[in-house]
Amino acid sequence: VSRNGKPVCLLTGASGRFGTAFCRRYAERFHIAAVHRGEPPEVATQGQRFVDPLAPGHEPPENADPVFVIRADLTEPGEIDRVIDLTLARFDAIDHVVNAAARVVTAPLVDARAQVDSLEDQFRLNAVVPARLAAAVAQRHWRTRDAENRRRNRSVVNVSSVSGLYVYGDSDQSGYSASKAALNFLTCHMAAEFGRFGVRANVLAPTTFPALVPTETVVDAAVALAEGDASGEVLVVDEAGAHYVERG
Ligand SMILES: NC(=O)c1ccc[n+]([C@@H]2O[C@H](COP(=O)([O-])OP(=O)(O)OC[C@H]3O[C@@H](n4cnc5c(N)ncnc54)[C@H](OP(=O)(O)O)[C@@H]3O)[C@@H](O)[C@H]2O)c1
């Protein structure tokens, strides 16, 4: 349990579209350990605050709930454990893992090297890293805390894509799509295995945002999964709204 009772959310991809919106909308509700690789998200953090140039003595409301940023390339050896070390040192607990960091390469499989040359990297960041992070949190923090996990309604939300469910044959995103499909199956296995100690795991599969659905709708669906009671489910967010899909 975190020091002041708020649930603790370990979020990757915090500087991206989803991650920044997540921090902006939910820093009040969660303690957020916000993992980014390059620039930090444009929100108040332990090292950066907003200043109103017209009222420099007045504290803008955006500064009320700073997120705890951690800079890490999650594909580098040792970085997943360092991120967990820092999060536990700061908050004493991890209640939700939201895996949103991803890489997408748009190129055909033939007549260009970009797709085939990046297949390993896409699979590593989009499928292996989320599984390693969730497994490491489970191994180090959740495995022996069955009752606490259930009381705190702990969970993993893996941000996948409709590209991991359906084949968009003219998208030239074969590697991304296949890595997200792998993430979906990994998540369903997590749900079965982590359920033994009271932790849920679900997939969020949005369509293109913000072009087709608002980013805020996608973020709200992630929080609904984190705070709900589903496990082993795939929640699609598309133009029809948020709806669960049948899975094999
Ligand atoms: N946007 C869409 O249309 C869409 C649709 C369906 C699904 N999704 C999924 O939704 C999630 C969020 O998408 P988004 O559009 O917000 O992504 P985005 O804006 O491209 O952001 C990607 C994030 O991943 C981080 N990242 C990249 N490589 C990393 C590494 N090696 N280690 C640690 N972090 C790394 C980036 O950090 P830096 O910026 O510092 O590199 C950034 O914070 C992704 O899983 C994506 O696949 C997106």
Show the helix and strand layout.
Layout: E1 8-12, H1 17-26, E2 31-36, E3 68-71, H2 79-91, E4 96-99, H3 113-117, H4 119-142, H5 146-151, E5 155-159, H6 174-194, E6 200-206, H7 215-227, E7 234-238, E8 241-244
Parallel strand pairs: 1-2, 1-4, 2-3, 4-5, 5-6, 6-7
Antiparallel strand pairs: 7-8
Helix pairs in contact: 1-7, 4-6
The structure holds NADP nicotinamide-adenine-dinucleotide phosphate.
Supply the key terms.
37% helix, alpha/beta, eight-stranded mixed β-sheet, binds NADP nicotinamide-adenine-dinucleotide phosphate, 248 residues
Walk me through this protein's architecture.
This protein is α/β, with parallel strands linked by helices and 248 residues long. It contains 7 helices and 8 strands; from the N terminus they run E-H-E-E-H-E-H-H-H-E-H-E-H-E-E. Strands 3-2-1-4-5-6-7-8 form an 8-stranded mixed sheet, with helices on both faces. Helix 1 packs across helix 7 and helix 4 runs parallel beside helix 6. The chain is globular, with a radius of gyration of 18 Å. It starts with 7 loop residues before the first strand and ends with a strand. The protein binds NADP nicotinamide-adenine-dinucleotide phosphate. NADP nicotinamide-adenine-dinucleotide phosphate binds next to helix 1. The site of NADP nicotinamide-adenine-dinucleotide phosphate has 26 residues, from helix 1.
Helix content: 25-40%
- How big a fraction of the residues is strand? 15-25%
Structural class, by secondary structure, is alpha/beta
What is the CA–CA distance across the termini? 35 Å
Shape: globular
Unreliable spans:
none
Largest sheet: 8 strands, mixed
Helix-strand string: EHEEHEHHHEHEHEE
Mean pLDDT: 96
Instruction: Order the strands across the largest sheet as they lie in space.
Output: 3-2-1-4-5-6-7-8
Give the C-alpha Rg. Answer: 18 Å
Strand tally is 8
Ligand species = NADP nicotinamide-adenine-dinucleotide phosphate
Number of helices: 7
